[in-house]
Amino acid sequence: MGYDLIRLNGLQLSAIIGVLDREQLTEQPLVIDAELRLDLSPAGRSDDLRDTVSYAAVADLIEGIVSTEKFALIETLAETLTAAIIRSDKRIEAAAVTVHKPRAPLTQTFDDVSVTVHRTRSEVPDSPALDRPRPAVSGVYEGELVEDQGGSASTAESPLTAEEGVTVTTPTARLGHYDRTSLAELGHEDASATGHFRDPDLPAAFPVRSVLALGSNLGDSSATLASAVQALEEAEDVVVVKVSPLARTKPVGGPEQQRDFLNQVVEIETRLSPHGLLDLAQRIEAEHNRVREERHGPRTLDVDIVTFASANIDSPRLQVPHPSAAERAFVLLPWSWMDPVALLSGRPVRELAQEAEDFDDVVRLET
Ligand SMILES: Nc1ncnc2c1ncn2[C@@H]1O[C@H](COP(=O)(O)OP(=O)(O)OP(=O)(O)O)[C@@H](O)[C@H]1O
Ligand SMILES: Nc1nc2c(c(=O)[nH]1)N=C(CO)CN2
Prior knowledge:
Blueprint: E1 5-15, E2 28-37, H1 41-46, H2 55-68, H3 74-88, E3 94-100, E4 114-120, E5 196-197, E6 208-216, H4 221-234, E7 238-243, E8 246-249, E9 261-270, H5 274-287, E10 302-308, E11 311-314, E12 319-320, H6 329-338, E13 343-344, E14 347-348, H7 349-355, E15 362-365
Parallel strand pairs: 5-11
Antiparallel strand pairs: 1-2, 2-3, 3-4, 6-9, 6-10, 7-9, 8-9, 8-15, 11-12, 13-14
Helix pairs in contact: 2-3, 6-7
Bound molecules: adenosine-5'-triphosphate and 2-amino-6-hydroxymethyl-7,8-dihydro-3H-pteridin-4-one.
Protein backbone atom coordinates (compact mmCIF):
# COMPACT_ATOMS: atom_id res chain seq x y z
CA MET A 1 0.00 0.00 0.00
CA GLY A 2 1.48 3.31 -1.04
CA TYR A 3 1.34 6.60 0.76
CA ASP A 4 0.48 8.76 -2.22
CA LEU A 5 -1.83 11.65 -1.49
CA ILE A 6 -3.69 14.36 -3.35
CA ARG A 7 -4.21 17.41 -1.15
CA LEU A 8 -6.61 20.28 -1.69
CA ASN A 9 -6.05 22.91 0.96
CA GLY A 10 -7.83 26.05 2.03
CA LEU A 11 -10.84 25.81 -0.28
CA GLN A 12 -12.85 28.90 0.64
CA LEU A 13 -16.62 28.54 0.50
CA SER A 14 -19.63 29.89 2.30
CA ALA A 15 -22.41 27.80 3.75
CA ILE A 16 -25.45 27.64 5.96
CA ILE A 17 -24.10 25.79 8.98
CA GLY A 18 -24.57 25.85 12.73
CA VAL A 19 -26.93 24.85 15.52
CA LEU A 20 -28.11 28.38 16.25
CA ASP A 21 -31.24 29.62 14.51
CA ARG A 22 -29.36 32.67 13.25
CA GLU A 23 -26.73 30.45 11.66
CA GLN A 24 -29.44 28.67 9.69
CA LEU A 25 -30.48 31.96 8.08
CA THR A 26 -27.22 33.43 6.80
CA GLU A 27 -24.22 31.98 5.07
CA GLN A 28 -20.87 32.09 6.84
CA PRO A 29 -17.37 31.32 5.59
CA LEU A 30 -15.95 27.83 5.74
CA VAL A 31 -12.50 26.67 4.74
CA ILE A 32 -12.08 23.08 3.69
CA ASP A 33 -9.02 20.88 3.34
CA ALA A 34 -9.28 17.49 1.68
CA GLU A 35 -6.80 14.65 1.35
CA LEU A 36 -7.31 11.68 -0.92
CA ARG A 37 -5.22 8.57 -0.66
CA LEU A 38 -4.78 6.69 -3.91
CA ASP A 39 -2.04 5.19 -5.99
CA LEU A 40 -0.60 8.02 -8.10
CA SER A 41 1.95 5.86 -9.90
CA PRO A 42 -0.23 5.21 -13.01
CA ALA A 43 -0.51 8.97 -13.62
CA GLY A 44 3.11 9.45 -12.63
CA ARG A 45 4.07 7.16 -15.49
CA SER A 46 1.48 8.10 -18.13
CA ASP A 47 1.18 11.87 -17.60
CA ASP A 48 -2.52 11.35 -18.37
CA LEU A 49 -5.24 12.94 -16.23
CA ARG A 50 -7.47 9.91 -16.72
CA ASP A 51 -5.06 7.89 -14.61
CA THR A 52 -5.68 9.95 -11.52
CA VAL A 53 -8.48 11.81 -9.77
CA SER A 54 -8.85 15.42 -10.79
CA TYR A 55 -8.54 17.79 -7.84
CA ALA A 56 -10.82 20.14 -9.79
CA ALA A 57 -13.57 17.51 -9.76
CA VAL A 58 -13.05 17.07 -6.02
CA ALA A 59 -13.36 20.83 -5.50
CA ASP A 60 -16.57 20.87 -7.56
CA LEU A 61 -17.98 17.96 -5.58
CA ILE A 62 -17.24 19.71 -2.28
CA GLU A 63 -18.66 23.00 -3.51
CA GLY A 64 -21.82 21.28 -4.79
CA ILE A 65 -22.52 19.75 -1.38
CA VAL A 66 -21.57 22.81 0.67
CA SER A 67 -23.65 25.17 -1.44
CA THR A 68 -26.83 23.11 -1.57
CA GLU A 69 -27.05 21.28 1.74
CA LYS A 70 -27.62 22.73 5.19
CA PHE A 71 -26.01 21.19 8.25
CA ALA A 72 -26.05 21.92 11.94
CA LEU A 73 -22.66 20.39 12.76
CA ILE A 74 -19.31 20.69 11.01
CA GLU A 75 -18.83 17.03 11.97
CA THR A 76 -21.77 16.07 9.76
CA LEU A 77 -20.49 18.14 6.88
CA ALA A 78 -16.99 16.62 7.20
CA GLU A 79 -18.43 13.10 7.36
CA THR A 80 -20.66 13.76 4.35
CA LEU A 81 -17.84 15.21 2.28
CA THR A 82 -15.45 12.38 3.17
CA ALA A 83 -17.99 9.73 2.18
CA ALA A 84 -18.90 11.57 -1.03
CA ILE A 85 -15.24 11.85 -2.03
CA ILE A 86 -14.56 8.14 -1.41
CA ARG A 87 -17.69 7.15 -3.32
CA SER A 88 -16.85 9.42 -6.24
CA ASP A 89 -14.06 7.19 -7.53
CA LYS A 90 -13.24 3.56 -6.81
CA ARG A 91 -9.52 4.26 -6.86
CA ILE A 92 -9.69 6.43 -3.75
CA GLU A 93 -8.64 4.21 -0.82
CA ALA A 94 -9.20 6.73 1.94
CA ALA A 95 -9.94 10.39 2.45
CA ALA A 96 -9.71 12.99 5.17
CA VAL A 97 -11.62 16.23 5.28
CA THR A 98 -11.06 19.15 7.63
CA VAL A 99 -13.82 21.71 7.96
CA HIS A 100 -12.69 25.02 9.47
CA LYS A 101 -15.37 27.36 10.80
CA PRO A 102 -13.51 30.59 11.41
CA ARG A 103 -16.60 32.58 12.43
CA ALA A 104 -17.97 30.06 14.88
CA PRO A 105 -20.11 31.86 17.49
CA LEU A 106 -17.68 31.87 20.41
CA THR A 107 -17.38 34.67 22.90
CA GLN A 108 -13.60 34.25 23.19
CA THR A 109 -10.95 35.46 20.77
CA PHE A 110 -9.83 32.56 18.63
CA ASP A 111 -8.13 31.82 15.35
CA ASP A 112 -10.10 28.92 14.05
CA VAL A 113 -12.19 25.94 15.01
CA SER A 114 -12.13 22.80 12.89
CA VAL A 115 -12.89 19.10 12.80
CA THR A 116 -11.12 16.44 10.79
CA VAL A 117 -12.71 13.18 9.71
CA HIS A 118 -10.58 10.31 8.36
CA ARG A 119 -12.36 7.45 6.63
CA THR A 120 -11.17 4.45 4.69
CA ARG A 121 -13.25 2.92 1.92
CA SER A 122 -14.31 0.04 4.17
CA GLU A 123 -15.74 2.52 6.70
CA VAL A 124 -18.00 4.27 4.22
CA PRO A 125 -21.43 2.65 3.84
CA ASP A 126 -22.26 1.39 0.39
CA SER A 127 -24.31 3.61 -1.79
CA PRO A 128 -25.81 1.03 -4.08
CA ALA A 129 -26.42 2.95 -7.28
CA LEU A 130 -26.51 6.65 -6.68
CA ASP A 131 -22.91 6.88 -5.69
CA ARG A 132 -21.64 9.00 -8.53
CA PRO A 133 -21.29 12.71 -8.02
CA ARG A 134 -23.25 14.81 -10.44
CA PRO A 135 -21.15 15.50 -13.51
CA ALA A 136 -21.04 19.21 -12.82
CA VAL A 137 -17.63 19.91 -14.23
CA SER A 138 -17.40 22.64 -16.82
CA GLY A 139 -15.02 24.43 -19.18
CA VAL A 140 -11.55 23.04 -19.50
CA TYR A 141 -12.38 20.26 -17.08
CA GLU A 142 -15.32 18.97 -19.11
CA GLY A 143 -15.33 15.19 -19.36
CA GLU A 144 -12.66 14.98 -16.77
CA LEU A 145 -14.78 13.46 -14.03
CA VAL A 146 -13.47 9.94 -14.03
CA GLU A 147 -16.10 7.44 -15.02
CA ASP A 148 -15.82 3.88 -13.74
CA GLN A 149 -12.38 2.88 -14.90
CA GLY A 150 -13.07 -0.85 -15.09
CA GLY A 151 -9.82 -2.77 -14.73
CA SER A 152 -7.83 -0.04 -13.09
CA ALA A 153 -10.38 0.43 -10.32
CA SER A 154 -9.41 -2.25 -7.90
CA THR A 155 -9.23 -0.73 -4.46
CA ALA A 156 -12.62 -2.00 -3.29
CA GLU A 157 -11.02 -5.43 -2.75
CA SER A 158 -8.17 -4.03 -0.68
CA PRO A 159 -9.68 -1.79 1.96
CA LEU A 160 -7.32 -0.10 4.35
CA THR A 161 -7.50 -0.89 8.00
CA ALA A 162 -8.47 1.94 10.31
CA GLU A 163 -4.90 2.12 11.65
CA GLU A 164 -3.61 2.72 8.19
CA GLY A 165 -5.93 5.67 7.69
CA VAL A 166 -4.47 8.84 6.32
CA THR A 167 -3.13 11.53 8.59
CA VAL A 168 -3.87 15.14 7.88
CA THR A 169 -0.75 17.22 7.90
CA THR A 170 -2.42 20.32 6.54
CA PRO A 171 -1.39 23.38 8.50
CA THR A 172 -4.42 25.34 9.59
CA ALA A 173 -4.97 28.07 7.07
CA ARG A 174 -3.94 31.44 8.46
CA LEU A 175 -7.34 32.86 8.98
CA GLY A 176 -6.75 35.92 11.11
CA HIS A 177 -9.32 37.39 13.45
CA TYR A 178 -13.00 37.22 12.93
CA ASP A 179 -16.17 38.93 13.84
CA ARG A 180 -17.61 37.39 16.92
CA THR A 181 -21.12 37.57 18.24
CA SER A 182 -22.01 36.46 21.71
CA LEU A 183 -24.16 33.38 22.13
CA ALA A 184 -26.71 35.47 24.03
CA GLU A 185 -26.99 37.87 21.11
CA LEU A 186 -27.46 34.93 18.80
CA GLY A 187 -30.30 33.60 20.95
CA HIS A 188 -28.58 30.44 22.11
CA GLU A 189 -31.69 29.27 23.92
CA ASP A 190 -33.37 28.86 20.55
CA ALA A 191 -30.69 26.58 19.21
CA SER A 192 -32.10 23.41 17.78
CA ALA A 193 -30.15 20.45 19.08
CA THR A 194 -31.27 17.87 16.56
CA GLY A 195 -31.60 18.07 12.82
CA HIS A 196 -31.82 21.16 10.69
CA PHE A 197 -34.49 22.82 8.63
CA ARG A 198 -34.30 21.88 5.03
CA ASP A 199 -35.76 23.47 1.93
CA PRO A 200 -38.34 20.88 0.82
CA ASP A 201 -37.93 21.80 -2.85
CA LEU A 202 -34.16 21.47 -2.97
CA PRO A 203 -32.96 18.23 -4.56
CA ALA A 204 -30.19 16.57 -2.58
CA ALA A 205 -26.69 17.32 -3.83
CA PHE A 206 -25.71 13.77 -2.90
CA PRO A 207 -27.78 10.69 -2.10
CA VAL A 208 -29.48 10.90 1.29
CA ARG A 209 -31.17 8.18 3.31
CA SER A 210 -34.88 8.35 3.94
CA VAL A 211 -37.19 6.02 5.84
CA LEU A 212 -40.68 5.38 4.46
CA ALA A 213 -43.60 3.68 6.20
CA LEU A 214 -46.07 1.64 4.15
CA GLY A 215 -49.48 0.46 5.29
CA SER A 216 -52.46 -1.30 3.75
CA ASN A 217 -55.75 -2.77 4.99
CA LEU A 218 -57.87 -3.02 1.86
CA GLY A 219 -57.60 -5.54 -0.95
CA ASP A 220 -54.66 -7.93 -1.21
CA SER A 221 -52.42 -6.02 1.22
CA SER A 222 -49.46 -8.34 0.95
CA ALA A 223 -49.39 -8.06 -2.86
CA THR A 224 -49.93 -4.28 -2.64
CA LEU A 225 -46.96 -3.76 -0.33
CA ALA A 226 -44.73 -5.96 -2.51
CA SER A 227 -45.80 -3.96 -5.55
CA ALA A 228 -45.18 -0.63 -3.76
CA VAL A 229 -41.65 -1.73 -2.87
CA GLN A 230 -41.12 -2.72 -6.49
CA ALA A 231 -42.38 0.69 -7.63
CA LEU A 232 -39.81 2.32 -5.33
CA GLU A 233 -37.09 0.06 -6.72
CA GLU A 234 -38.02 1.12 -10.23
CA ALA A 235 -38.31 4.83 -9.48
CA GLU A 236 -35.70 7.16 -10.88
CA ASP A 237 -33.29 8.69 -8.37
CA VAL A 238 -34.26 6.16 -5.70
CA VAL A 239 -32.44 3.06 -4.51
CA VAL A 240 -34.08 0.74 -2.01
CA VAL A 241 -31.48 -0.03 0.64
CA LYS A 242 -33.43 -2.11 3.20
CA VAL A 243 -36.92 -3.54 3.53
CA SER A 244 -38.38 -4.57 6.90
CA PRO A 245 -40.28 -7.77 7.61
CA LEU A 246 -44.07 -7.41 7.35
CA ALA A 247 -46.09 -6.60 10.46
CA ARG A 248 -49.75 -7.42 11.04
CA THR A 249 -51.13 -4.59 13.15
CA LYS A 250 -54.40 -3.51 14.76
CA PRO A 251 -55.79 -0.27 13.32
CA VAL A 252 -54.81 2.79 15.34
CA GLY A 253 -57.51 5.47 15.27
CA GLY A 254 -60.06 5.76 12.49
CA PRO A 255 -63.45 4.08 12.19
CA GLU A 256 -64.43 0.97 14.15
CA GLN A 257 -64.29 -2.48 12.59
CA GLN A 258 -61.53 -1.82 10.12
CA ARG A 259 -59.53 -4.81 9.04
CA ASP A 260 -56.03 -5.30 10.49
CA PHE A 261 -53.25 -3.55 8.60
CA LEU A 262 -50.13 -4.91 7.06
CA ASN A 263 -47.26 -2.49 7.71
CA GLN A 264 -43.72 -2.37 6.43
CA VAL A 265 -40.83 0.09 6.58
CA VAL A 266 -38.39 0.76 3.77
CA GLU A 267 -35.09 2.61 3.80
CA ILE A 268 -34.15 4.28 0.56
CA GLU A 269 -31.37 6.42 -0.74
CA THR A 270 -32.48 9.29 -2.93
CA ARG A 271 -31.49 12.46 -4.68
CA LEU A 272 -35.06 13.71 -4.90
CA SER A 273 -36.09 16.79 -2.97
CA PRO A 274 -38.38 16.09 0.00
CA HIS A 275 -41.38 17.34 -2.02
CA GLY A 276 -40.21 15.27 -4.98
CA LEU A 277 -40.19 12.21 -2.74
CA LEU A 278 -43.69 13.07 -1.45
CA ASP A 279 -44.88 13.35 -5.08
CA LEU A 280 -43.42 9.91 -5.76
CA ALA A 281 -45.04 8.46 -2.61
CA GLN A 282 -48.42 9.89 -3.63
CA ARG A 283 -48.02 8.69 -7.21
CA ILE A 284 -47.36 5.17 -5.93
CA GLU A 285 -50.42 5.43 -3.64
CA ALA A 286 -52.55 6.57 -6.59
CA GLU A 287 -51.26 3.73 -8.77
CA HIS A 288 -52.49 1.36 -6.10
CA ASN A 289 -55.99 2.77 -6.22
CA ARG A 290 -55.65 4.85 -3.09
CA VAL A 291 -58.72 7.00 -2.61
CA ARG A 292 -58.61 9.54 0.21
CA GLU A 293 -61.96 9.35 1.92
CA GLU A 294 -61.74 9.24 5.66
CA ARG A 295 -58.89 10.33 7.90
CA HIS A 296 -57.25 7.17 9.24
CA GLY A 297 -59.83 5.15 7.30
CA PRO A 298 -59.19 1.92 5.41
CA ARG A 299 -56.78 2.27 2.50
CA THR A 300 -55.25 0.09 -0.15
CA LEU A 301 -51.93 1.83 0.33
CA ASP A 302 -50.44 4.55 2.51
CA VAL A 303 -46.86 5.71 1.94
CA ASP A 304 -45.55 8.13 4.58
CA ILE A 305 -42.15 9.80 4.75
CA VAL A 306 -40.87 9.12 8.24
CA THR A 307 -37.43 10.72 7.98
CA PHE A 308 -35.39 12.47 5.32
CA ALA A 309 -31.73 12.37 6.38
CA SER A 310 -31.69 14.30 9.67
CA ALA A 311 -33.86 17.08 8.28
CA ASN A 312 -36.76 18.87 9.90
CA ILE A 313 -39.37 19.95 7.37
CA ASP A 314 -42.55 21.85 8.02
CA SER A 315 -44.25 22.85 4.80
CA PRO A 316 -48.00 22.98 4.10
CA ARG A 317 -47.70 19.59 2.36
CA LEU A 318 -45.04 17.86 4.41
CA GLN A 319 -43.89 17.44 7.98
CA VAL A 320 -40.70 15.49 8.61
CA PRO A 321 -40.01 13.60 10.79
CA HIS A 322 -43.59 12.34 10.37
CA PRO A 323 -45.41 13.89 13.34
CA SER A 324 -46.98 10.62 14.53
CA ALA A 325 -44.17 8.18 13.77
CA ALA A 326 -42.60 8.41 17.23
CA GLU A 327 -45.82 7.12 18.83
CA ARG A 328 -46.66 4.38 16.34
CA ALA A 329 -45.40 0.90 17.09
CA PHE A 330 -46.76 -0.15 13.68
CA VAL A 331 -43.99 2.02 12.19
CA LEU A 332 -41.34 1.79 14.94
CA LEU A 333 -41.30 -1.99 15.40
CA PRO A 334 -40.81 -2.98 11.74
CA TRP A 335 -38.24 -0.17 11.51
CA SER A 336 -36.32 -1.57 14.50
CA TRP A 337 -36.43 -5.12 13.05
CA MET A 338 -34.90 -3.73 9.87
CA ASP A 339 -32.40 -1.50 11.65
CA PRO A 340 -31.88 -2.37 15.32
CA VAL A 341 -29.76 0.74 15.99
CA ALA A 342 -31.98 3.27 14.23
CA LEU A 343 -32.60 6.61 15.92
CA LEU A 344 -35.54 8.98 15.57
CA SER A 345 -34.92 12.55 16.74
CA GLY A 346 -32.01 11.25 18.78
CA ARG A 347 -33.91 8.43 20.51
CA PRO A 348 -33.52 4.70 19.81
CA VAL A 349 -36.42 3.54 17.68
CA ARG A 350 -36.52 0.26 19.63
CA GLU A 351 -37.08 2.16 22.87
CA LEU A 352 -39.77 4.40 21.34
CA ALA A 353 -41.55 1.28 20.06
CA GLN A 354 -41.70 -0.19 23.56
CA GLU A 355 -43.33 2.99 24.85
CA ALA A 356 -45.94 3.14 22.07
CA GLU A 357 -49.52 2.29 23.07
CA ASP A 358 -49.99 -0.13 20.19
CA PHE A 359 -46.82 -2.11 21.00
CA ASP A 360 -48.78 -5.28 21.85
CA ASP A 361 -50.88 -5.00 18.68
CA VAL A 362 -47.98 -5.54 16.29
CA VAL A 363 -47.14 -9.06 15.16
CA ARG A 364 -44.10 -9.86 13.09
CA LEU A 365 -44.89 -12.04 10.10
CA GLU A 366 -42.16 -14.38 8.98
CA THR A 367 -41.28 -13.88 5.36
N1 LIG B 1 -44.24 12.98 6.37
C1 LIG B 1 -45.32 12.89 5.58
N2 LIG B 1 -45.50 11.81 4.78
C2 LIG B 1 -46.60 11.74 3.98
N3 LIG B 1 -47.56 12.68 3.91
C3 LIG B 1 -47.42 13.77 4.68
C4 LIG B 1 -46.31 13.92 5.55
N4 LIG B 1 -46.42 15.11 6.19
C5 LIG B 1 -47.53 15.67 5.76
N5 LIG B 1 -48.16 14.88 4.84
C6 LIG B 1 -49.40 15.27 4.20
O1 LIG B 1 -50.45 14.54 4.82
C7 LIG B 1 -51.51 14.49 3.91
C8 LIG B 1 -52.50 13.41 4.32
O2 LIG B 1 -51.85 12.16 4.23
P1 LIG B 1 -52.67 10.82 4.43
O3 LIG B 1 -53.97 10.88 3.71
O4 LIG B 1 -51.74 9.71 4.06
O5 LIG B 1 -52.95 10.86 5.99
P2 LIG B 1 -53.37 9.67 6.86
O6 LIG B 1 -52.65 8.46 6.37
O7 LIG B 1 -54.87 9.57 6.94
O8 LIG B 1 -52.79 10.04 8.29
P3 LIG B 1 -51.29 10.02 8.77
O9 LIG B 1 -50.58 11.13 8.03
O10 LIG B 1 -51.42 10.27 10.23
O11 LIG B 1 -50.69 8.67 8.46
C9 LIG B 1 -50.85 14.29 2.57
O12 LIG B 1 -51.61 14.85 1.55
C10 LIG B 1 -49.50 14.96 2.73
O13 LIG B 1 -49.44 16.19 2.01
N1 LIG C 1 -52.16 -0.36 12.45
C1 LIG C 1 -52.20 0.73 11.67
N2 LIG C 1 -53.00 1.72 12.02
C2 LIG C 1 -53.04 2.85 11.26
C3 LIG C 1 -52.26 2.96 10.11
C4 LIG C 1 -51.43 1.90 9.77
O1 LIG C 1 -50.69 1.94 8.75
N3 LIG C 1 -51.42 0.80 10.57
N4 LIG C 1 -52.28 4.11 9.39
C5 LIG C 1 -53.02 5.12 9.77
C6 LIG C 1 -52.98 6.38 9.02
O2 LIG C 1 -51.95 6.45 8.18
C7 LIG C 1 -53.91 5.08 10.92
N5 LIG C 1 -53.86 3.87 11.63
